[in-house]
């Protein structure tokens, strides 16, 4: 794995992508010229043609460019390339880098890369990784590859991988690693420093040592900065922190991520029920988890069932989008039937057809604001039974104020456009009522989805749009029918 403290300067990822795509374009041009030459001059041997057109040199240059890039940058480039070009680049990556790059690419792209590799290559790629990384990758590997991989590991590493795989993927246990440094409380700082010098390299992101008893029970942590500023003859027990933030393997990863942000943690110990040290959680893994959760929420809000490769097949991409498209179709049909029920009213007063989208649109926008706030509050565990009622009343108050202000403005605009005071009054009243409905829909839609066992962002916007459109049309057209016709 690359050293996180390495000071090597890498080119910008955008520049790297341009260089790689240019090299691929040159490679394709050479292949095209070779093909034409073979057609027009079949007597000339192919290998001489290739050499004369520096066909192999282009691939060599491209391979060297890839070798000089950080694994994350190579992953970015692979995700930005169509499948054919992606596999060409992937074949040029050195085998010893396969594992670390597979970890960096998105799940959808990783699937396409794994399909292009045989079992031997997959086992070799995974075996080069750390224990926690093997566990991350194992979920995407074929079962026979996982079995072969487990056989190739030593007993200690195999036990750690099996332990990581036993935890829920949304738990701390699935994210923790086993690479940490422990120290005893009864030794001096000088002894601890000598021990670190003996080790040579420290695990990545090490900002503290874990102080344990002989049985492995955690009793504190020793930040490295304290080792540097205190007298070397002082014992570890005198300067260690005896109340560190700790986690358990069964803790929710989302809760741990919030704790890392709240307490500005770099690493944190993970202990079992007997408070024995079993692993550690690091900030890089937590950041990856937060990013993955944010991307999943964004996809769910857009109605995508799973992460989608930008260059996947049309059929696969279409299937990924069918669920919420079908839901949208049903809700749109229902909303259209609400409008259809008032066809007679619309025929008598054509202005209704022009005004009703405004009521629904304002309701949708207002409801989205409430929904976004509530989804964030639920995700961060900021909403509880104690404050839920107050939040709901606050959103209702905001909707009431906005309804009075913007309903009044729209009523005035309607009067100016059509010169009908009654129509203007209906417009203002419908705007007010639909903004109130939108606020309640924005508040309750995420709660309903949570009770169904899903992420609060999952389908919330679809449900909100259905409610605000249907109720907006019904309220406006219903009031118009009762008061104007």
Question: What descriptors fit this protein?
Answer:
485 residues, mainly alpha, MgtE N-terminal fold, Tetracycline Repressor, domain 2, 3 domains, three-stranded mixed β-sheet, two-stranded antiparallel sheet, 23 helices
Q: If you had to describe this structure to a student in words, what would you say it looks like?
A:
The protein has three domains: 13-166, MgtE N-terminal domain-like (MgtE N-terminal fold, Alpha Horseshoe), CATH 1.25.60.10; 182-282, Roll (CBS-domain), CATH 3.10.580; 314-484, Orthogonal Bundle (Tetracycline Repressor, domain 2), CATH 1.10.357.20. It is globular. The longest helix has 31 residues, at 388-418. It contains 23 helices and five strands. A three-stranded mixed beta sheet has the order 1-2-3. Strands 4-5 form a two-stranded antiparallel ribbon. The model has no long low-confidence stretch (mean pLDDT 87). It is mainly alpha-helical and 485 residues long. α8 (119-127) crosses α10 (143-152), α20 runs parallel beside α22 (421-451) and α20 runs antiparallel to α23 (460-484).
């Amino acid at each position: 794995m690359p050293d996180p403290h390495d000071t090597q300067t890498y080119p910008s990822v955008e520049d790297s992508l341009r260089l790689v795509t240019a090299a691929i374009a040159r490679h394709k041009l050479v292949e095209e010229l070779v093909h034409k030459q073979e057609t027009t001059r079949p007597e000339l041997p192919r290998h001489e043609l290739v050499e004369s057109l520096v066909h192999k040199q282009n691939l060599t240059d491209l391979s060297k460019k890839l070798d000089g890039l950080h694994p994350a940058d190579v992953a970015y480039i692979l995700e930005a390339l169509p499948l054919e070009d992606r596999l060409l680049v992937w074949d040029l990556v050195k085998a010893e880098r396969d594992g670390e790059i597979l970890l960096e690419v998105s799940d959808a792209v990783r699937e396409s890369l794994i399909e292009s590799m045989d079992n031997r290559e997959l086992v070799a790629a995974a075996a080069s990784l750390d224990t926690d990384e093997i566990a991350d990758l194992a979920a995407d590997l074929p079962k026979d590859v996982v079995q072969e991989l487990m056989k190739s590991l030593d007993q200690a590493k195999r036990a750690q991988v099996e332990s990581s795989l036993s935890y829920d993927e949304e738990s701390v246990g699935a994210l923790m690693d086993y690479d940490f440094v422990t120290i005893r409380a009864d030794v001096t700082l000088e002894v601890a420093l000598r021990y670190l010098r003996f080790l040579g390299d420290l695990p990545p992101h090490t900002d503290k040592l874990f102080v344990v008893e002989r049985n492995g029970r955690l009793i504190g942590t020793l930040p490295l900065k304290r080792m540097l500023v205190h007298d070397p003859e002082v014992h570890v027990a005198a300067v260690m922190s005896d109340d560190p933030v700790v986690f358990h393997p069964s803790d929710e990863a989302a809760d741990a991520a919030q704790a890392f942000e709240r307490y500005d943690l770099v690493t944190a110990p993970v202990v079992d029920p007997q408070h024995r040290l079993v692993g550690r959680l690091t900030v890089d893994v937590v950041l990856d988890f937060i990013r993955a959760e944010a991307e999943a929420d964004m996809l769910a809000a857009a109605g995508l069932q799973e992460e989608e490769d930008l260059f996947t097949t049309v059929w696969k991409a279409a299937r990924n989008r069918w669920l919420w498209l079908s839901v949208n179709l049903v809700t749109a049909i229902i909303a259209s039937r609400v409008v259809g029920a008032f066809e007679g009213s619309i025929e008598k007063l054509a202005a209704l057809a022009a005004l009703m989208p405004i009521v629904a649109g304002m309701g949708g926008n207002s409801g989205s604001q409430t929904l976004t706030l509530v989804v964030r509050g639920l995700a961060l565990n900021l909403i509880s039974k104690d404050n839920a009622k107050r939040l709901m009343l606050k959103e209702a108050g905001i909707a009431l104020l906005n309804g009075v202000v913007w309903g009044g403005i729209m009523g005035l605009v309607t009067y100016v456009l059509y010169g009908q005071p009654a129509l203007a009054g209906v417009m203002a009243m419908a705007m007010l009522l639909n903004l109130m409905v939108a606020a309640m829909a924005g508040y309750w839609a995420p709660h309903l989805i949570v009770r169904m066992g899903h992420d609060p962002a999952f389908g919330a916007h679809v449900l909100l749009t259905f409610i605000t459109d249907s109720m907006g049309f019904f309220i406006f057209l219903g009031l118009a029918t009762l008061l104007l016709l």
